Protein backbone atom coordinates (compact mmCIF):
# COMPACT_ATOMS: atom_id res chain seq x y z
CA UNK A 1 0.00 0.00 0.00
CA UNK A 2 1.43 3.34 -1.03
CA UNK A 3 1.96 5.77 1.82
CA UNK A 4 -0.51 8.21 0.27
CA UNK A 5 -3.16 5.47 0.23
CA UNK A 6 -2.66 4.96 3.97
CA UNK A 7 -3.39 8.60 4.71
CA UNK A 8 -6.24 9.05 7.18
CA UNK A 9 -8.99 11.25 5.71
CA UNK A 10 -11.58 10.78 8.48
CA UNK A 11 -10.76 9.92 12.08
CA UNK A 12 -13.55 9.39 14.62
CA UNK A 13 -12.22 7.59 17.70
CA UNK A 14 -13.39 5.47 19.45
CA UNK A 15 -15.41 4.34 16.43
CA UNK A 16 -13.55 4.26 13.11
CA UNK A 17 -11.22 5.95 10.66
CA UNK A 18 -11.28 6.01 6.88
CA UNK A 19 -8.11 5.88 4.81
CA UNK A 20 -7.61 7.65 1.49
CA UNK A 21 -8.02 4.37 -0.40
CA UNK A 22 -11.43 3.84 1.22
CA UNK A 23 -10.35 1.28 3.81
CA UNK A 24 -12.31 1.50 7.07
CA UNK A 25 -10.49 0.68 10.29
CA UNK A 26 -12.50 0.24 13.47
CA UNK A 27 -11.23 0.83 16.99
CA UNK A 28 -13.64 -1.68 18.55
CA UNK A 29 -13.19 -5.44 18.82
CA UNK A 30 -16.48 -6.94 17.69
CA UNK A 31 -15.55 -10.62 17.22
CA UNK A 32 -18.41 -13.09 16.83
CA UNK A 33 -19.83 -14.70 19.98
CA UNK A 34 -21.68 -17.95 19.21
CA UNK A 35 -25.29 -18.59 20.23
CA UNK A 36 -26.00 -21.22 22.86
CA UNK A 37 -27.63 -23.80 20.61
CA UNK A 38 -29.52 -26.34 22.74
CA UNK A 39 -27.62 -25.59 25.98
CA UNK A 40 -28.88 -22.58 27.99
CA UNK A 41 -26.42 -19.96 29.21
CA UNK A 42 -25.83 -19.29 32.90
CA UNK A 43 -29.08 -17.28 33.03
CA UNK A 44 -31.01 -20.22 31.61
CA UNK A 45 -31.52 -18.37 28.32
CA UNK A 46 -31.36 -20.07 24.92
CA UNK A 47 -30.07 -18.08 21.95
CA UNK A 48 -29.92 -18.77 18.24
CA UNK A 49 -29.46 -16.80 15.06
CA UNK A 50 -31.76 -16.39 12.07
CA UNK A 51 -31.33 -14.95 8.59
CA UNK A 52 -34.17 -12.60 7.75
CA UNK A 53 -32.95 -11.48 4.34
CA UNK A 54 -30.10 -12.69 2.13
CA UNK A 55 -29.83 -9.69 -0.23
CA UNK A 56 -28.82 -7.63 1.59
CA UNK A 57 -27.93 -10.00 4.39
CA UNK A 58 -29.97 -9.10 7.45
CA UNK A 59 -30.18 -11.24 10.56
CA UNK A 60 -31.15 -11.35 14.20
CA UNK A 61 -30.29 -13.16 17.42
CA UNK A 62 -33.27 -14.66 19.26
CA UNK A 63 -33.47 -15.09 23.04
CA UNK A 64 -35.77 -17.49 24.88
CA UNK A 65 -35.90 -17.48 28.72
CA UNK A 66 -36.71 -20.38 30.99
CA UNK A 67 -40.31 -21.49 30.48
CA UNK A 68 -41.81 -22.87 33.72
CA UNK A 69 -45.16 -22.76 31.91
CA UNK A 70 -44.66 -23.36 28.15
CA UNK A 71 -48.31 -22.46 27.48
CA UNK A 72 -47.91 -18.93 28.82
CA UNK A 73 -47.26 -16.25 26.20
CA UNK A 74 -44.50 -13.76 27.01
CA UNK A 75 -43.94 -10.13 25.99
CA UNK A 76 -41.78 -9.72 22.91
CA UNK A 77 -38.86 -7.28 22.92
CA UNK A 78 -37.27 -6.15 19.66
CA UNK A 79 -33.86 -4.78 20.62
CA UNK A 80 -31.52 -2.62 18.53
CA UNK A 81 -27.89 -2.30 19.63
CA UNK A 82 -25.91 0.92 19.75
CA UNK A 83 -22.46 1.88 18.53
CA UNK A 84 -22.76 5.20 16.70
CA UNK A 85 -24.24 3.35 13.70
CA UNK A 86 -20.72 2.13 12.93
CA UNK A 87 -19.57 -0.46 15.48
CA UNK A 88 -21.09 -3.32 17.46
CA UNK A 89 -23.27 -6.25 16.55
CA UNK A 90 -26.14 -8.32 17.87
CA UNK A 91 -23.73 -11.24 17.61
CA UNK A 92 -20.99 -10.07 20.02
CA UNK A 93 -20.69 -10.95 23.68
CA UNK A 94 -21.32 -7.41 24.92
CA UNK A 95 -24.82 -7.11 23.49
CA UNK A 96 -25.63 -10.80 23.79
CA UNK A 97 -24.99 -10.67 27.54
CA UNK A 98 -26.93 -7.43 27.96
CA UNK A 99 -30.02 -8.59 26.06
CA UNK A 100 -29.84 -11.92 27.90
CA UNK A 101 -29.89 -10.07 31.22
CA UNK A 102 -32.96 -8.09 30.10
CA UNK A 103 -34.67 -11.29 28.99
CA UNK A 104 -34.02 -12.84 32.40
CA UNK A 105 -35.04 -9.77 34.41
CA UNK A 106 -38.22 -9.07 32.44
CA UNK A 107 -39.10 -12.66 31.47
CA UNK A 108 -39.55 -11.74 27.82
CA UNK A 109 -38.62 -13.18 24.45
CA UNK A 110 -36.22 -10.97 22.53
CA UNK A 111 -35.19 -10.41 18.94
CA UNK A 112 -31.89 -8.51 18.69
CA UNK A 113 -31.45 -6.94 15.25
CA UNK A 114 -28.24 -7.30 13.24
CA UNK A 115 -28.05 -4.35 10.83
CA UNK A 116 -25.40 -3.22 8.35
CA UNK A 117 -22.90 -0.71 9.70
CA UNK A 118 -21.82 2.69 8.40
CA UNK A 119 -19.70 4.09 6.84
CA UNK A 120 -19.53 1.20 4.34
CA UNK A 121 -23.34 1.10 4.44
CA UNK A 122 -24.44 4.70 5.02
CA UNK A 123 -27.70 5.65 6.67
CA UNK A 124 -30.48 4.72 5.84
CA UNK A 125 -29.16 1.12 5.54
CA UNK A 126 -29.56 0.53 9.29
CA UNK A 127 -33.17 1.74 9.14
CA UNK A 128 -34.03 -0.42 6.13
CA UNK A 129 -32.48 -3.52 7.72
CA UNK A 130 -34.32 -2.95 11.00
CA UNK A 131 -37.59 -2.52 9.11
CA UNK A 132 -37.04 -5.87 7.37
CA UNK A 133 -36.63 -7.55 10.75
CA UNK A 134 -39.74 -5.84 12.11
CA UNK A 135 -41.77 -7.07 9.15
CA UNK A 136 -40.37 -10.56 9.67
CA UNK A 137 -41.33 -10.46 13.35
CA UNK A 138 -44.80 -9.23 12.39
CA UNK A 139 -45.27 -12.20 10.06
CA UNK A 140 -45.53 -14.40 13.17
CA UNK A 141 -48.54 -12.59 14.60
CA UNK A 142 -50.93 -15.26 13.30
CA UNK A 143 -48.80 -18.05 14.74
CA UNK A 144 -47.86 -19.18 11.24
CA UNK A 145 -44.42 -17.58 10.85
CA UNK A 146 -41.13 -19.32 10.11
CA UNK A 147 -39.82 -19.31 13.69
CA UNK A 148 -41.29 -21.71 16.27
CA UNK A 149 -40.19 -19.66 19.31
CA UNK A 150 -42.14 -16.63 18.15
CA UNK A 151 -45.11 -18.68 17.00
CA UNK A 152 -45.44 -20.60 20.26
CA UNK A 153 -44.29 -18.24 22.99
CA UNK A 154 -44.59 -14.57 21.93
CA UNK A 155 -47.56 -12.44 22.95
CA UNK A 156 -48.17 -10.17 19.97
CA UNK A 157 -50.42 -8.01 22.11
CA UNK A 158 -47.32 -6.98 24.09
CA UNK A 159 -44.56 -6.04 21.65
CA UNK A 160 -41.89 -3.50 22.61
CA UNK A 161 -39.13 -1.69 20.74
CA UNK A 162 -35.93 -0.79 22.60
CA UNK A 163 -32.41 0.33 21.88
CA UNK A 164 -29.39 2.10 23.29
CA UNK A 165 -27.61 5.10 21.73
CA UNK A 166 -27.75 4.69 17.93
CA UNK A 167 -30.08 1.75 18.52
CA UNK A 168 -32.47 4.08 20.31
CA UNK A 169 -32.29 6.45 17.34
CA UNK A 170 -33.15 3.56 15.02
CA UNK A 171 -36.00 2.47 17.31
CA UNK A 172 -37.48 6.00 17.19
CA UNK A 173 -37.32 5.99 13.41
CA UNK A 174 -38.93 2.55 13.31
CA UNK A 175 -41.74 3.70 15.63
CA UNK A 176 -42.55 6.55 13.25
CA UNK A 177 -42.60 4.12 10.35
CA UNK A 178 -44.82 1.73 12.32
CA UNK A 179 -47.28 4.59 12.79
CA UNK A 180 -47.25 5.32 9.07
CA UNK A 181 -47.06 1.85 7.52
CA UNK A 182 -47.40 -0.85 10.17
CA UNK A 183 -45.24 -4.02 10.02
CA UNK A 184 -48.16 -6.39 10.53
CA UNK A 185 -48.33 -5.96 14.31
CA UNK A 186 -48.96 -3.33 16.95
CA UNK A 187 -46.18 -1.91 19.12
CA UNK A 188 -47.20 -1.48 22.75
CA UNK A 189 -44.31 0.71 23.84
CA UNK A 190 -40.75 1.84 23.29
CA UNK A 191 -37.66 2.23 25.49
CA UNK A 192 -34.99 4.70 24.36
CA UNK A 193 -31.80 4.44 26.44
CA UNK A 194 -29.30 7.29 26.02
CA UNK A 195 -30.64 8.05 22.53
CA UNK A 196 -28.25 9.30 19.85
CA UNK A 197 -30.03 12.45 18.70
CA UNK A 198 -26.82 14.43 18.32
CA UNK A 199 -25.67 17.60 20.04
CA UNK A 200 -26.37 21.24 19.32
CA UNK A 201 -24.59 21.05 15.99
CA UNK A 202 -24.28 18.62 13.12
CA UNK A 203 -21.25 16.49 13.92
CA UNK A 204 -18.65 15.74 11.24
CA UNK A 205 -19.16 12.01 11.80
CA UNK A 206 -22.92 12.26 11.18
CA UNK A 207 -22.21 13.92 7.83
CA UNK A 208 -19.97 11.01 6.86
CA UNK A 209 -22.31 8.19 7.93
CA UNK A 210 -25.40 10.02 6.62
CA UNK A 211 -24.19 11.84 3.47
CA UNK A 212 -27.70 12.86 2.40
CA UNK A 213 -28.47 14.58 5.72
CA UNK A 214 -30.49 17.78 5.57
CA UNK A 215 -28.48 19.16 8.49
CA UNK A 216 -29.29 20.18 12.05
CA UNK A 217 -33.03 19.57 11.77
CA UNK A 218 -32.80 16.27 9.89
CA UNK A 219 -35.72 14.32 11.43
CA UNK A 220 -33.51 11.24 11.71
CA UNK A 221 -30.93 13.22 13.70
CA UNK A 222 -33.08 15.63 15.67
CA UNK A 223 -36.67 14.36 15.90
CA UNK A 224 -37.56 16.96 18.54
CA UNK A 225 -37.31 19.62 15.83
CA UNK A 226 -40.03 17.83 13.87
CA UNK A 227 -43.13 17.65 16.11
CA UNK A 228 -45.38 16.72 13.22
CA UNK A 229 -43.30 13.63 12.60
CA UNK A 230 -43.24 12.71 16.29
CA UNK A 231 -47.02 12.72 16.41
CA UNK A 232 -46.94 9.69 14.09
CA UNK A 233 -45.12 7.42 16.56
CA UNK A 234 -46.87 4.07 16.39
CA UNK A 235 -47.00 3.01 20.04
CA UNK A 236 -48.89 4.03 23.15
CA UNK A 237 -46.08 4.73 25.58
CA UNK A 238 -42.40 5.69 25.58
CA UNK A 239 -39.71 5.50 28.27
CA UNK A 240 -36.71 7.78 27.72
CA UNK A 241 -33.61 7.03 29.81
CA UNK A 242 -30.71 9.46 30.14
CA UNK A 243 -27.45 9.57 32.11
CA UNK A 244 -26.35 12.60 34.10
CA UNK A 245 -22.82 12.73 32.67
CA UNK A 246 -23.78 11.93 29.07
CA UNK A 247 -23.09 14.75 26.61
CA UNK A 248 -26.06 13.53 24.55
CA UNK A 249 -28.55 13.82 27.42
CA UNK A 250 -29.83 17.29 26.49
CA UNK A 251 -31.29 16.00 23.25
CA UNK A 252 -32.87 13.14 25.17
CA UNK A 253 -34.61 15.67 27.39
CA UNK A 254 -35.58 17.78 24.35
CA UNK A 255 -37.12 14.69 22.78
CA UNK A 256 -39.07 13.96 25.97
CA UNK A 257 -40.41 17.52 26.19
CA UNK A 258 -41.27 17.66 22.49
CA UNK A 259 -43.11 14.35 22.66
CA UNK A 260 -45.17 15.57 25.62
CA UNK A 261 -46.19 18.68 23.66
CA UNK A 262 -46.88 16.91 20.37
CA UNK A 263 -50.23 15.60 19.15
CA UNK A 264 -49.06 12.02 19.66
CA UNK A 265 -51.36 11.44 22.64
CA UNK A 266 -49.48 8.62 24.36
CA UNK A 267 -47.70 8.41 27.72
CA UNK A 268 -44.03 9.41 27.94
CA UNK A 269 -41.82 8.92 30.99
CA UNK A 270 -38.28 10.08 31.76
CA UNK A 271 -35.74 8.19 33.89
CA UNK A 272 -32.28 9.66 34.50
CA UNK A 273 -29.32 7.94 36.16
CA UNK A 274 -27.21 10.49 37.99
CA UNK A 275 -23.43 10.46 37.89
CA UNK A 276 -23.02 8.06 34.97
CA UNK A 277 -21.94 8.40 31.36
CA UNK A 278 -23.17 7.28 27.98
CA UNK A 279 -24.28 3.59 27.83
CA UNK A 280 -22.57 2.83 31.14
CA UNK A 281 -25.14 0.07 31.66
CA UNK A 282 -23.84 -1.89 28.65
CA UNK A 283 -20.15 -1.68 29.54
CA UNK A 284 -20.67 -2.17 33.30
CA UNK A 285 -23.67 -4.45 33.37
CA UNK A 286 -23.35 -5.65 36.96
CA UNK A 287 -22.77 -2.28 38.64
CA UNK A 288 -25.46 -1.12 41.06
CA UNK A 289 -26.88 1.64 38.85
CA UNK A 290 -26.95 -0.64 35.79
CA UNK A 291 -28.97 -3.16 37.79
CA UNK A 292 -31.40 -0.40 38.86
CA UNK A 293 -31.82 0.70 35.24
CA UNK A 294 -32.34 -2.87 34.06
CA UNK A 295 -35.02 -3.44 36.73
CA UNK A 296 -36.71 -0.20 35.66
CA UNK A 297 -36.85 -1.35 32.05
CA UNK A 298 -38.00 -4.84 33.05
CA UNK A 299 -40.86 -3.39 35.11
CA UNK A 300 -41.80 -1.14 32.20
CA UNK A 301 -42.02 -4.10 29.84
CA UNK A 302 -44.35 -5.91 32.23
CA UNK A 303 -46.62 -3.01 33.24
TrEMBL record:
InterPro entries: AB_hydrolase_3 (IPR013094), AB_hydrolase_fold (IPR029058), Carboxylest/Gibb_receptor (IPR050466), Lipase_GDXG_put_SER_AS (IPR033140)
Gene Ontology MF, one: hydrolase activity
Biological source species: Heracleum sosnowskyi
Protein name: 2-hydroxyisoflavanone dehydratase-like
Domain Alpha/beta hydrolase fold-3 residue range list: 77-281
Catalytic residues (UniProt): 165
Pfam families: Abhydrolase_3
Family of this protein: Belongs to the 'GDXG' lipolytic enzyme family.
Amino acid sequence: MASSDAQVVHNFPPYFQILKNGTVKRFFNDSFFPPTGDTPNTDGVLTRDVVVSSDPKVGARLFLPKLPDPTRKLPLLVYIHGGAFSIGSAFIQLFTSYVSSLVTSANVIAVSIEYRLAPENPIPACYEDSWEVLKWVGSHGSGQGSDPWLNQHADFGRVFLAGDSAGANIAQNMAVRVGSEGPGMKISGMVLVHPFFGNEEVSPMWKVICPDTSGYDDPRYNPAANPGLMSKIGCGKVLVCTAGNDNLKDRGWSYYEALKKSEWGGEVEMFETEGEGHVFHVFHQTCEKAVVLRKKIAAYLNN
